[in-house]
Amino acid sequence: MSRRAREHKAWRFNVGAGVILLMLFAASGCRGSQNVLNPGGSQASHISNLWWFYFWITVSIYCLVLIFLISAIIRTTRKPFVPAGSREVLPTNSDEERRKTIFIGAAIGLSLATLFVLFLADLFTGRSLHSLRAADALTIKVTGHQWWWEAVYEDQVASNQVTTANEIHLPVGKPVQIKLASHDVIHSFWVPNLHGKKDLIPGHPTTLWIQADKAGVYRGQCAEFCGHQHAHMRLLVVAEDEEYFQQWLSRERSNAHIPETENQIHGEKVFLQTTCVMCHAIQGTVANGKVGPNLTHVANRRMLAAGRIPNARGYLAGWILDPQHLKPGVQMPQHNLSSDQLQALLDYLESLN
Amino acid sequence: MSALVLEQKELNEPLERVALERVWKRPPGFIGWITTTHHKDIAIRYIVTAFIFFALAGILAFFMRLQLSFPENNILGPDRYNQFFTVHGMTMMFLFAVPVMEALGLYFVPLMIGTRNVAFPRMNAFGYYTYLAGGILLYVGLFLNIGPDTGWFSYVPLSGPQFSPGKRVDFWAQMITLTEIAALVGAVEIIVTVFKMRAPGMSLNRLPIFVWAQLITAFMIIFAMPAIMLGSGMLAMDRLTHVSTHFFNPAEGGDALLYQHIFWFFGHPEVYIIFIPATGFVSTIIPVFARRKIFGYTALVLSLISIGFIGFGLWVHHMFATPVPELGQSFFTAASMMIAIPSGIQIFCWIATLWGGKPQMQLPLLFVLGFIALFVLGGLTGVILASVSLDLQVHDTFFVVAHFHYVLIGGAVFPLFAAIYYWFPKWTGRLLDKSLGLWHFWLFFIGFNLTFFPMHQLGLKGMPRRIYTYAYDSGWANLNLLATTGAAIMGISIVLFLINVWRSRHSGVNAGPNPWHSPTLEWATESPPPDYNFVYLPTVQSREPLWDEVSPPVVCGLSNRKRESLITTLMEAAPDHRYELPEDSIWPVILALVVGGGISWAIFDPWAVPISALLTFIVLCFWFWRGNEPASLTHHVQSSEDLQLLKSEANKI
Amino acid sequence: MTARAVIDVSELPSATMDHRSTIWWGNLMLLCIETMMFALLVGAYFYIRQNFYEWPPPKVHDPPAIYHAVPLLTVPTINLVLLLMSCIPMAWVDRACLKHNQMSVTLGLVVVILCGAAVIIFRFLEFHSLLFKWNENAYASAVWTILGMHLLHLFTGTLEFALLLSWLLLKDMDVKHARDIRVTATYWYWIAGVWLVLYAIVYLSPRFL
Amino acid sequence: MKSGFGLLTASFLILISGCKREDRGFRVSAPAANAIQAISLDPIHPGGASTDELIKNDYEENAYALSEGKRLYSQMNCVGCHAHGGGGMGVPLMDDKWIYGSRPEQVFATIVEGRPNGMPSFRGKIPDYQVWALVAYVRSMSGLASQNAAPNRDDHMHLGPPESSREQQSPKDVPPTK
Questions:
Q1: Residue of chain D with shortest Cα separation from C134
Q2: What residues does each domain of chain D span?
Q3: Which residues in chain A (242-261) have CB-CB distances under 8 A to chain B?
Q4: Domain D57-178 maps to which CATH number in 2.40.400.10, 1.10.760.10, 3.30.450.190, 3.40.50.300?
Q5: CA–CA distance, C82 with C79 (Å, rounded to integer)
Q6: For residue range B54-101, what is the model confidence (pLDDT) as tens digits?
Q7: Chain D residues with beta carbon closer than 8 angstroms to that of B234
Q8: Are C52 and C209 in contact (CB under 8 A)?
Q9: Which among C4, C29, C52 has the least Cβ separation from residue B222?
Q10: ipTM field
Q11: Rg of chain A over all Cα atoms, to the nearest angstrom
C-alpha cells in the first residue's frame, strides 16, 4: 500500500473516530442537575431545542466540508503520481474554473440561507424567552456578594419579607421575577436547567424571569470571574409544588427557634458574645449583622458556604473554626473557640430550622 | 514618472554584490547585534522571543490543567491559579499571537514585494525592544507575585482600585501599553512598506495574498489598538495614587459597561488580527503544494477586506449576558453570523484550489489540512455562540474556552506551524526533518482534540470559566482528567517540534534557494537571504513571478555606496524616487529602555510620566540628529581605485 | 558581464517633499491612530453622559456651589482662536519650504513656536475654566483627559518645531529637512482641526445639546 | 545608556520589595499578640526607662491587609462614629492628634480595650489578626502606612484624596481635653 494511500486511510479513520466521538459525547451529556441539555424550566427547554436545531445543522455542514476536503485530496490518487518537489505547474483550464465558480457561488448562497434560518430561529427563541411575564408574580431580590448569594423574598407587608442565602425555593409552574443587583464586583446568576445567565453589574440593576416546570433541586453557579472564590459561589434552586413552597415560606417568615436545652442556650450565648453577632443576623435575637448571610433558618438549608460543604455537623464545625482552609480568601475570619463552646454553638445552630 | 523605461545594459553582478555586502554589513560583535536595523534580524528576534513566551505560557497552561485534573485539587491555590490563567491568556494574546504574525509579515513583506528593508528600519528596532520590555515587565511581575490576577480582560470593578489592592492590575495596564506600542509600530511599518516600496510592475492586483493579509491586519491594528490603550490608560488613571479618576466608578457617574465596550471594541478585532495573517499563510502554501495557481484571488482578497470591516462591528457578542438592550443584541447576532460568509468563501476557495491541483502530502500541507478541519469546527461553534439565546447558556463557560482554542490554536497556530515548516529553508537554508515533523503533527492534532473537544461537553454541563477547582459532586472530573492527558500529549509534541528546529538548524537536509518551487519573490534570492535581499531589485509582470516563463527585467542604478531602496507609486508601482535608508543606530534601544522604564516606573509614581516624556524627547533629538549626505559623494562606484579595491575583495571570496 | 533588460533608476530624485515620500504616509498613519483615540474618548464622554441627570453635574465639593457647572468660555475661546491663527504662519512656512527659502522658513518657524508656546500656556489656564478637579467625578475625569491628551500633542508639535529650528540654525536645509518640516506642518494642521471638534464637544455641547 | 540603565535598576529594586506588599496572606498568624501585655498608656515608668521594644505591624506593608482593614472599617461600623476619618461622634483619625498613642500596639489596645467617652471594647468580637489589619488601616488614614500599599480610591462617592495620596502627618500625643 503506497505511503499516500496509507495517509488517506489515516485521514478517513481520524474523521470517522471524530464523528463517533461526537455522537458519544452528545448522548452522554444530557443528565445532571447543572446541565444545559436537561431543561427543568420553560426557557431552558426553548434554548435546549434551539441548541439541538443548531447542533444538527452545524454537524451536517462540518461533515460536508470534511467530505469535500478529503475527496479533494484523494482525487489525486487517480491522477499520475507527481514526484515530490517537481517543478511542473498545472495549467488552469477555464471551463473547469467556471464550473468551480458556479459551485462555490451555490455553496455561498446555501450557507447564506442557512445562516439566515439560524438567525430567525434565534430571533423567535429570544422573543419567547423575553415574553415570560406575570402581573403579581413572586419577586426575589438576589444580591451578589463576594462569593455568596443573598436572596430576599419581597412582600407588600414588610414584616413578611424573608431573607435567606444561597438557596432559592420556587413554586413549580409559575413565572418568578428575580431582581439582580451586585454589592461589589460583577457576578453572573446562572441556573443552566432553568434559564441562561444574567450579569449582576454594579450600577445596572436588571431583572430575570424564570419558571420551573419540573419539581427538583437545580444547581447554579456564578459565571463571571469575581475574585478568589469565584469557583465556590454556587447556589441551589429548589422547585417544589405550591403547598410545599408556602409551607417553606411561612416557616422562613417565623422567628428563630427559641433554644430549649441547656446546651442550646449556652450556644446562643456563645453566638451573641463572640464574633458571630458582628456579621450575621438571626431574626428573633439581638443579632442583626448585614455583612454575612442571614442564619435564622440555617439548619434546613441543604448546603453551606455557598455550596462548598453539605449541611452536616462535622463540616459546620470545620467551617466555623477555619473557613480559610475550605474557601481561602473568604471574608469569614478564623475563630479559636474552646471545645464546649463549639459543641454548644453547633447544637444551637442545628436547632435553627 | 515615466512608464517602465526598458533598455539593455551590461551588469557586473559580482562587483555589485561585493559593494552592497560592504555597505549593508552591520558592525561586528555585540554592538552590531544590538544596533541592527535589518528587517530580517528584527523579525527573527521577534519570532524567537514570541516562541519563548509561547513555551512559558504553555507551561502555565499545563499547571492549570494539573490543578483542574481532580476535584478540590491543591496544586495551585486560588491566588496563584488566578495569576497563572491571567498571565497565560495575556502572554498568548499580546506576547505570542499578534507579535509572531506581525514578525512573519516584517520578515517576508519586504522580500515578497522585492525591496531591501522596511520603510522605517530604526522604528522597527524600537518596536521590538518595546515589545521585549513589555514581556519582561509581565514575567518579572509574575515571578515577584505581582502578576495580574483579574483575567486577560480584567473587568472593572474587580480590577478597580477597591477590589484589586496592590500593583497587580497596574502591571497588566502598563504591559499592554508597551506591547500595543510595538504592535502599532509594526503595523505602520507594514502599511507604508506595502504602499510605497513595491517592486516596479507589482500593481495592487498582483500583490501576493500573504501581503494583502498583512496589509489588512495592519489597518485593523491601526484602528483597534487605540481602544485597548485608552481602556488600560483609563483603568491605570483610575488606580494610580495621586490621579484616581472616576471613569469606572458607578458612584461618581462612571460605568463598568463603558470598560467592557471599550475593551471588546479592541477585543474582537484583536482575534481577527491573529487570524487574518494565518489565512495569508494558507493562501501562500496551498497553491505551492497543489502545484497550481490559487483559485479565486479576487474573492479571497475581497473576503479578507470584508472580514477587516465586519470585524469591528460585532464586539457586543461578548456582552450578551449584560443588560445591553435586546434590539442591539440581535443586531450583533446578525453581524456575528455575517462574518461567517467571508470565512466560508476562503475555505471554499482553498478547497477548490486543492480540488484542481495535485496535492503533495508535505508537512506544510498536512498542517494546513489540520487547520481547515479544526478551524471549520471552531467557526461553527462560533455561529452557535453568535445566537443570543444560546450564548446566554454557554457564555463564560468551558464551551467558549473550547471555541476560542479551536479558532486560535486550530485557526492560527496550525497555519503558523505550516508557515514554519514552509519557510524554514528560507531562514536557514535547511529543511526540517520529515519524520519528526509527522510525529509533531499527529501528536499535536490528537493531543489538541483530546484536550479541547471534551470542553464543549464540560461547558454544556455547566462548568464556568476561570474556576481554580470544582466540587466532587459536579460530575466534571472525568472530562477534566481527559483534557489534562490531552494537554500532556500536546506538550510532548511541542518539545518534539523544538528539538526538530534545534537539530535542523545546522544538520537538516540542504535546501536550495527554492526547494518547494514557489512562485513568490522571496524564493528568488538565496537562503538565508543576504542583508540587502536582492543584488538587483526584481520587477514583476504577473501574480506568480517565479512561475512565469520569461524572467522580467531588473532594477539597476541604485547606489552601492550607501543603503538605498526604490520608492514606487501607490497604485501602479511605477518607479518614483530613490530613498536612502538610515544606518544602524543605538538610539532605538535607548528609546525603548527610556519608554519601557518610564512606563514601568509610572506604576509607582505619576511624576514618572512627565519625566520619562522629557527623556523620550531628548533621546528623539539624538535619534533625529543624523549627519547630512555630503553632496560631493557620487552615489555610484565608478572611480578606478575603488574598482581595484572591490575587484581584489571580489576574487578573495 | 551579462547583458539583461534593465530599468535604470539612477536619475530619479533622491527625496521628494510631498505625499510621495514614505515619512508623509507614516505621519498619516499616526494621525489615524490619534484620531481613533480621540474618537473613542469622545464616545466615552457621551457614554458617561447617560449616567447623569444634570450634565455637567453640579459643583458641590468646595464653595461656591454651582448648580449648572458649565465650563467657562473666555480663556478656551482665546486659546482656540490662537491655535487657529497659528496655522497662518504655518502655511507660510509650508510654502517657503517648497521654494527652499531657508531664511523665511526659519522666521516662520520662530513665529509658529511662539504661537505653540502661547497655546500651551493658555491651556494650563484653561484647566481652571473646567470648574472641577480631575478626580471629583466621571465628567471631570473625561474632560480633563481630553484636554490633557490634546496638550500632549501640543507639546509634541511645538518641541518638534524647536528641534527643526535648531537644525536650520546650525546646519543648512536640504530636501529631506524641508520634507520633515512639511510633514510636521501637516501634523500641526491636524492638531488645530481636532481641537476645533473637541472644543465644540467640551465647551459647546453642554450648553446646546 | 546609563540613564536608562539606572532607571531600570531603580524600578527593579522597587519590584523586589513588591512581593512582600502583594502576597494575599489568607491564613495568617497575627503579629506578636502576647506583646499586648507590655503596653502602657504613658511612657512614665517607676525606676526609669521602659523596656517595651517597638512592635512593627507588617500589615502596614501589605496592600491586601490594608484593603481588608478598610473593608472591616466600614463593616464593623467604625464609620458610624469616626466617619471616613473626619470624625463625628468619634475623634477624627486622619489628623496628627493621638490621645491614646499612635504606635500600632497602642492603637491595638485602644480598639481591644475600648476608651472612655464612647469607644466600645471589641475584645472577643473581632479576631486579633483582623484588629491588626484595622490598626494598619487606621494608621494609613493619616499617611503613616507605606504609600504604595495604602488603598486607593474606592467605588463610592469622592470624599477627598484616598489614603495612598495623603501626606504623612507626624503624630503628636495630645492629652484628652474633657
A1: D158
A2: 57-178
A3: none
A4: 1.10.760.10
A5: 5
A6: 999 999 999 999 999 999 998 999 999 999 999 999 999 999 999 999
A7: none
A8: no
A9: C29
A10: 0.91
A11: 29
